[in-house]
Structure formats: structure tokens, C-alpha cells
């Protein structure tokens, strides 16, 4: 493999439908991202964008092909090693935040740190996303925009080479969505994290210099 942060080769994923027919969801011939790249990946609803992110993260395994992240083909790792690799090398920002409701903003970020390399500064990251005054608030006491900023800090606390974002502004209003998007891009630029964001929103696409359509990867 070369020095690409992300390299996909002949990746295929399909599912069996109820009638027994095979549904091809992902067919990627070749796709690469270098350090510091920021890409919007677009496609119609149900086209497989989230499935592709889960393949890249090692949450799902492809039927065939190579998924290489930071020099490691994660398809060759057993599940436990994939989980550890993901924690240290991949940050994942979800549309639904996935915060633990019984823990404060700071505790949510530090819990993410426990499963990675533990080198990041959770307090400083929360300050960077403008949450210095909300460190000890639990998710229910935070606005939806603040919750998403906690999720961004958690995704970045282990200084991952690759950040995946699955419709991270989808649960936010236009103003909060723009603020969160700009913040995520800024923090990734400063840390030189490679960012791959899935979206179907034209307003989000306009923030990216490079937009890739899923069907173009075949």
C-alpha cells in the first residue's frame, strides 16, 4: 500500500433480501484519501453511504476487497483488534450523537479516550469546540448543537488519522448545522485529520472544495 490515509480496492458488499435475491449495496473499484483531505461523499437516500462508512470503520466487513487505513488492511484483523485499531485511528461522528446520557460532556469525551491511545486533552478539545462552560453538563442539559460538538470532541480526542462523519448536521437547524460543520472542518484542518463526510444536503456540499458521488467510485 502507499502512504494514503485511506485506500479502498475492489470493495464489495451485498445483502440477501427476503426473497433470496442478492442486493449489491457497495461496489468501489478504487478510492484514496491523503492526509489532510476533506471530502464530501454524496448519494441518494439508501444508496449505501452509511454502509460504506461502516466498512471503512471496520464495523462491517466487505464481501471482498481491501480497506486500508493508515497503512493497515483492517479486513485482515480479527474483531477485537479491529475495535482497538478503530479507537486509535478513526474518529466517527454520528448524526444521532450517540452520547451516554448518564455522563457529563467531559466524561463522554474521556470515555472515548479510554479505548484509544489516550494522548488527547479532553478539556482542551471541549474548549476548542466552545464548550468550556459546559464541561460538567449531561447531554439532556445541552442543546442539540452542543451535543454534536461534544460528539466531535469525542471523535477527535485520540488524534485519529481519519475522521468519518455520517450526516452530522442532519439533526440540526440550518444555523447550528453550519456552525457545527465549520467547526468540524476547522478542527480537522488544525489537526491535519483526513475528513470524509457523508451528506445528501446541497448546503453542506457547498462547504467542500471536493465532492465525490458514490456512483463515481464504481
Layout: helices, strands, pairs:
Layout lengths: L5 E11 L5 E12 L4 E5 L6 H9 L6 E6 L2 E2 L5 H11 E4 L11 H10 L7 H7 L15 H13 L5 E5 L7 H18 L2 E6 L2 H4 L4 E4 L5
Parallel strand pairs: 3-8, 3-9, 6-7, 7-8
Antiparallel strand pairs: 1-2, 1-4, 4-5
Helix pairs in contact: 3-5, 4-5, 5-6
Structural account:
Strand 1 and strand 2 (22-33) form a beta hairpin. This protein has a five-stranded parallel β-sheet, with helices on both faces. Strands 2-1-4-5 form a four-stranded antiparallel β-sheet, covered by helices on one side. Helix 5 (144-156) packs parallel to helix 6 (174-191). Helix content is 33%, strand content 25%. The protein has a single domain (36-48, 78-217), classed as P-loop containing nucleotide triphosphate hydrolases (Rossmann fold, 3-Layer(aba) Sandwich), CATH 3.40.50. It is an alpha/beta fold and 218 residues long. The radius of gyration is 17 Å and the shape is globular.
Question: What are the key terms here?
Answer:
218 residues; alpha/beta; Rossmann fold; 33% helix; globular
Strand portion: 25-35%
The whole-number mean of residue pLDDT values reads 91
Give the class-level CATH name: Alpha Beta
> SSE order in H/E notation?
EEEHEEHEHHHEHEHE
CATH topology: Rossmann fold
**Radius of gyration of CA atoms, rounded to a whole number:** 17 Å
Kindly state the percentage of residues in helix. 25-40%
Please tally the helical runs, counting DSSP H or I stretches of 4 or more residues. Answer: 7
How are the strands of the largest sheet arranged?
6-7-8-3-9
> How many domains comprise the coordinates?
1
How many strands? Answer: 9
- Quaternary structure: single chain
In CATH, the homologous superfamily goes by the name P-loop containing nucleotide triphosphate hydrolases
Amino acid at each position: 500500500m502507499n502512504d494514503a490515509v485511506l485506500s479502498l480496492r475492489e470493495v464489495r458488499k451485498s445483502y440477501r433480501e427476503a426473497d433470496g435475491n442478492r442486493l449489491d449495496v457497495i461496489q468501489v473499484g478504487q478510492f484514496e484519501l491523503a492526509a489532510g483531505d476533506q471530502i464530501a461523499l454524496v448519494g441518494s437516500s439508501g444508496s449505501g453511504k452509511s454502509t460504506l462508512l461502516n466498512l471503512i470503520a471496520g464495523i462491517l466487513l466487505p464481501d471482498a476487497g481491501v480497506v486500508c487505513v493508515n497503512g493497515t488492511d483492517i479486513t485482515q484483523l480479527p474483531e477485537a483488534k479491529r475495535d482497538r485499531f478503530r479507537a486509535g485511528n478513526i474518529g466517527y461522528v454520528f448524526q444521532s450523537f450517540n452520547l451516554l446520557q448518564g455522563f457529563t460532556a467531559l466524561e463522554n469525551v474521556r470515555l472515548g479516550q479510554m479505548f484509544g491511545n489516550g494522548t488527547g486533552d479532553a478539556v482542551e478539545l471541549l474548549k476548542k469546540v466552545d464548550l468550556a462552560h459546559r464541561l460538567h453538563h449531561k447531554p439532556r442539559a445541552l442543546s442539540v448543537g452542543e451535543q454534536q460538538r461534544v460528539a466531535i470532541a469525542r471523535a477527535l480526542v485520540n488524534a485519529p488519522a481519519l475522521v468519518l462523519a455520517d450526516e452530522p448536521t442532519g439533526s440540526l437547524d440550518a444555523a447550528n448545522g453550519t456552525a457545527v460543520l465549520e467547526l468540524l472542518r476547522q478542527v480537522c484542518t488544525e489537526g491535519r485529520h483526513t475528513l470524509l463526510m457523508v451528506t445528501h444536503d446541497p448546503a453542506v456540499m457547498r462547504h467542500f472544495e471536493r465532492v465525490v458521488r458514490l456512483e463515481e467510485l464504481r
